[in-house]
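Submission sheet (multi-component)
Chains listed below:
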Amino acid sequence: MQRTAPAEPRMLTRMVGHRYRDRRAVGAMLLAVGTCAVCVLAGWGLWKGTALRRFTLEIAAAAPPPGHFLAHDRGGHVDHHVLLHGLDDDTLRNLHAADVLLMGNSRLMFALRGPALRDYFVTRGLRPFALGFGHEEQHLFPLAVMQRHGLRPKVVIANVDNFFGGLTSAWGTRVLRDSAFDAWKVEFEATASHAVRRAIHQVIPHVPDLQDDEREFVIYRSERDGAWFIANDFGRGSRLEPFYRGRDTVRPHNLDLARSFKKSVEATGARLIFALVPGRDVSLTHAQILADLVGVPLVAPDVPGLRTMDGSHLTDESAARYAAVFFQHLDRVLDTLIDANPDSPRQP
Amino acid sequence: MNFVSYAFAALLLLVCLARLTVGRRKVEPTYVWVLLIASLLFYGWHIPSYLWVLLVSATIDFYAALALERPGPSPRARRLILAVSLSTNLGLLAFFKYFGFALDNLQWASERVGWDFSRPAWHVVLPMGISFYTFQSMSYTIDVYRRQLRALHSYRDFILFIAFFPQLVAGPIVRASEFLPQLPRVRRIHWPVMATGLALLVEGYFLKMVCADTLATYVDKYWEHGYRTDGNSVVALWLAVLFSGQIFCDFAGYSQIARGCAYLLGYQLPVNFRSPYIAGSFKNFWERWHITLSRWLRDYLYVPLGGNRVSPRRTYANLLLVMLLGGLWHGAAWTYVAWGALHGAALAVERMLGLHRGLERRPWWQRLAWGVVVQSVVLMAWVIFRSASFGGAMQFLRNIARLEGAPLNAEMWMAVLFLIPIALAHGWTWMVEHAWVRPLSPARRAVLTGVMLYGILMAYGSGNAFIYFQF
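Outcome: structure written.
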């Protein structure tokens, strides 16, 4: 008794001390959460209740249309992984079924998209798939996609704006090296991040995204035809610069790559068409010489008065206008190709 | 796995759930297994096949320690066992980290002397955090060899010590004597510990996602301007200051997150940073910057070399050698070696001048002047550390030294804004250390944590991997 009696009050004091400290700690956590909640409320009020409301945040409004997967958000080009590693079953099925593959950089992907692309090819009885990529991607990456999945299209349309440099972008190189597990991880991270960002920024503004110069585009990609759906405006709008038409030459290295590409495409039974979407420093002379030397038709309409989102990529309205003219020009080339190749489908 | 990823968030959530259910009290084996599996998953998430590197290193050290402790082996046999353990770790490190570097230098040297050697195009991918866990593993064997530590008989517990995921890939480098006693400890859930863990997590994520990632955007975008022969002094200096802020926030942020996670899981990790940019001497800088590496180098390299118990000249040579190796530990490039050499030389000069101790007894203006010198050299060393080549770094420093004037534009001021939290934190630590103010009360810290949490949601920068992952 003598040994236990003094221990009891000590234990009791310790328990009371523990309880007191626990209560204070829980109180501190609640205070932190409460402070954050007050900041959220105050920030939201300041954003929406004052003149600051003119700063909009498209990520909160951007919603993927049905049948689309996330292609790009905050520096992550998820579509590289999805297409090369075949992460989306529907997309892969449509890629296999495609009669026409459109390859090229982001200028092509912005210019030929939406209903214009679908309607034109459907009326010709062809299934298109836009296999272009952003991020300085040239011909090697789409060719790798084609070869990995054993695609056998009837026509390949390549936008030859800096297309035959023989380089793969740093991102593309990584994607080619990545395993299927890596690809899944990238897609999981990007998709989760995008979903969380969309939810959070309904109430909390992301300050860097409010600045026009800092804004990045959010893009979804159609499972049916690979076309990009641009979910936000970004950059500062400006007029699209016309083609460069002065003196130019084609370097033997680029010519060899173009010829080799043509050989690879024709080995699958497809016919190759070159295209050229206008933009800053895009040389029509170079494209024409290249097309003549390789022996491939070139479709490069010049459409006046087009506007871009950021000096390089067409706005929705300009893209629709450009696509209409482009397909008129392409129509004639396809007619010629189809006449020359009796196996190719005809217009219904 | 990166701390700034949803995969990590999911993993941490699952492990915390295990802590609250199967890990509530005493030494639940289930909880230890959960931690171990989570740690291996965390590491294998990067490149699964590199798990074997970690396991080989840890297994050899585990059995080496057991052999060292068995009664019977002669001193010579014990030295041999230690040599096997150290050479395995250093061999793995040498192969994965320095093999490519050695080939590059061989190629360079062969070109100079006219040998016909063409570098094979092998590319060895560096296993994440190899420098951290090999050092941790080596310290265990050395401690057992020195009879300062009893060998652990549970392989599972030893692997957990090496692979404990909060500190696995970028430290803090934990001593076995700090971690192993925590394994059999009763780990009741203490809410103050949980609250501290959460506060550390928020502080760490704020440093990384808001400050480091935003500063990185400016540094990555403009750094090469510093290499230009017509580069402006103000811009070069601005970039150097931004990078010094970025690397601090990046690494200190990681360490805080690691400590926060460990707290949540019932463990404690050592402090790794203590406001290094208020250091008044080089010695003091290394007592504040990457503290766990500094003490590793001190205890396992500097002291065995003789430390300061030898002649002054040998002491200077020891300092230089230790810092050179410390530089090389950071990466296989001459710029890292030069960075280490600069710090080593600075430590030697400081000791030569007698400024390494008793500084606080000197007049304030001497302290201030030496403090400015110290921080200027540290800044200069960061330029060398960040630069792609030694020539580039020299040009960068030449640009700064020209001392041309130019006003800061809006973008430059915007970047400077992200240095303010670092300046405030350093200033606060300085005032606390000089007893001008008392440390933050829990309530004030809670309010600050809430504000930082909002800051993270509102101003996170572009996601980048942690700089120290590559080491």
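Remark: The mean pLDDT of chain B is 88.
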